[in-house]
Amino acid sequence: xxxxxxxxxxxxxxxxxxxxxxxxxxxxxxxxxxxxxxxxxxxxxxxxxxxxxxxxxxxxxxxxxxxxxxxxxxxxxxxxxxxxxxxxxxxxxxxxxxxxxxxxxxxxxxxxxxxxxxxxxxxxxxxxxxxxxxxxxxxxxxxxxxxxxxxxxxxxxxxxxxxxxxxxxxxxxxxxxxxxxxxxxxxxxxxxxxxxxxxxxxxxxxxxxxxxxxxxxxxxxxxxxxxxxxxxxxxxxxxxxxxxxxxxxxxxxxxxxxxxxxxxxxxxxxxxxxxxxxxxxxxxxxxxxxxxxxxxxxxxxxxxxxxxxxxxxxxxxxxxxxxxxxxxxx
Length: 330
Description:
Number of strands: 15
Structural class: alpha/beta
Distance between the termini: 43 Å
Shape: globular
CATH topology: UDP-N-acetylmuramoyl-L-alanine:D-glutamate ligase
Low-confidence stretches: 319-330
Strand order of the largest sheet: 5-1-10-11-12-13-14-15
CATH architecture: 3-Layer(aba) Sandwich
Strand content: 15-25%
Helix content: 25-40%
CATH class: Alpha Beta
Number of domains: 1
């Protein structure tokens, strides 16, 4: 542990989320798969944005959401990513700083391709479908990560989505090398099954070489493992890493380390409003517990409790994160 307060560094695609409530017809009209994350070009992103309107905007990105929630868990956080010098980029930086998160994000020159944005379409059943234009996020370079990485920290948390960037693999390996030199553990989320499909061999090689902690849902980890059953996916994970959490929505999660395997029930909630960011929040609570040296089952419970807080409202953040959202509809 670095000092008295654990410190977690997140590395990922810096995005601004635009969350909008829509009917299924909107998703169908744009050729999107319900519940998935779709990478789109600037033109497609613009057309969808024009249709759904401004929505609720907040700084986002998978690991950025996880790092933002650390403000509510007594853990220090730093986020590394890349934005453009535009309004959305300023929103991202200002919100992270307002939450007490160090955010030495790199800034791209000029306004093109602009800060990455993710339009999150939420249907009446609470399911979310994401249409993402990565923009400046994919321009991050290894040298920028090396320049911004703190000297001392406990866990580096990396999102699988980074492999979709042209220099993503090089960025990930540069960060991982620095983490190992600092004596930090490395945690990975596969991000989603599509990301696994696109980058499976790269992820598997990285897991074998660097990863200490694996966090993902049963579909993502199952895709990596070539398994469809949650227990089998966990068996595979424990053959690769020291600590693992495999979530299964309302069925709870399996968490495990050298002390054993535990099933942690999902926290009860009255009604799911929006699943956006629930996995990100789970990862935040779980990693906070691990960084604080808590037993694995307690860390799993921290993840479940934090995930429940974001299921009952639109958007990926709550607590200190939600309080920092101060962007009016444009």
